[in-house]
Amino acid sequence: MGQLNTSMKSAIVHYHEIALKGGNRPWFIARLVRNLRALTAELGVTRVRALMGRIKLELDPTAEWETLAEQLRLVFGIANFAQAGHVLGVDLDKVADAVLADLGDRQPGSFRVSARRADKRYPLTSPQIEREVGGRIKQAKGWTVNLSAPDLTVHLEMLTDEVYYSFGKQRGAGGLPSGVSGRVVCLLSGGIDSPVAAYRMMKRGCQVHFIHFHSYPILSKASQDKVREIARLFTRSQLRSRLTMVAFGEIQRQVVLTVPPPLRVIIYRRLMLRIADRLAHNTRARAVVTGEVVGQVASQTLENLAVINAVTRLPVLRPLVGHDKNEITDEARSIGTYPISIIPDQDCCQLFTPKHPATRATVVETEAAEAALPIDEIVESAIAEALVEHLNFPAKRP
Predict the structure, then answer these.
(1) Residue 225 dihedral angles phi and psi, to the nearest 5°
(2) H-helix segments, 7-125
(3) Domains in the chain, CATH or no CATH each
(4) Each residue's pLDDT tens digit, 96-130
(5) Can you list the alpha helix ranges (DSSP code H) found in 40-80?
(6) What is the three-state SS of 2-36?
(7) pTM of the prediction?
(8) Which residues contact 174 (CB under 8 A, 6 or more apart)?
(9) How many helices (H) and strands (E) does the chain have?
């Protein structure tokens, strides 16, 4: 589908979880409206406003529906959406005439009408409305009615003094609007797991700042290019992203020179978490997010995770902690990060990795191994030399 059907100049957006927020619901809806305005500003949307239990986007006739729909599928807080036509008043004859005019050359094997009344004072019930409008469509088109599994569903949104109609709905990203749950930092490696962890936190309404530890110039810039592309993809959902590149190769060299091989990976992770903790404090983030999974690699046993956690007082959130690789990979495919994640690169986690890492480290032995390292100096230097990139969607014009 290219440009809009000229008589269907709206998009109707439904939310689900927001409706359960009680007294905070207006604030959540206002944030979703604000996000929609920003994320669709250059896609032919002329106005965004909240109606009764839904949000309406008014569209310029030149808008490309498929382009707009692609963006709407990425907006957190949306349960479903549809291109919609509009009838002033609630006369069902006029509604049926408008629906028939916009059905075009559709030839479904079966159909049904689904009506929702935002204003329960309307004299007919939803089933009665469905029968009235459905009967007119059946009479005009001769189509078969199928209430359980129709090929086409005509949706009617009955408001107090107007009606919106649409043909089918598209699924949205769900979750909560970006920004309603506060700010977190996420360790983003460019592999398969950490982007999925970041996505899950964004879906819960968190503004996610990304931190990437790299080993350039010891290794190539491939991992940096990957996380930059992933951050750009995610910025289409959360409007603004902060990507911090932290050079970690020389830090790993220091660890290799002073720390016994079995504990090196644990100490790498503790140093990363210390740096992430400081960066979180500097940006007023309230938690650190990682893509770790219990038992997936040697450093991710419960004992090792406890030792890693010991260096921060911030919550360390691990959204994937109980999932297996197949589940995570399937989700990476569904959110669009998998093709980026599998691009070959040289990740810092693969540098100077011992053959037999410790699987049950203790805080006592780890702190003893760290005693020879200038921990505070390492953290301060890493933060001072980190490079910060700011991403926006739509991209700011120069």
Answers:
(1) -65, -40
(2) 25-39, 65-72, 92-102
(3) 10-171 (3.30.2130.30), 183-392 (3.40.50.620)
(4) 999 999 998 999 999 999 999 988 888 999 999 99
(5) 65-72
(6) CECCCCCCEEEEECCHHHHCHHHHHHHHHHHHHHH
(7) 0.91
(8) 16, 17, 76, 77, 78, 79, 203
(9) 13, 15
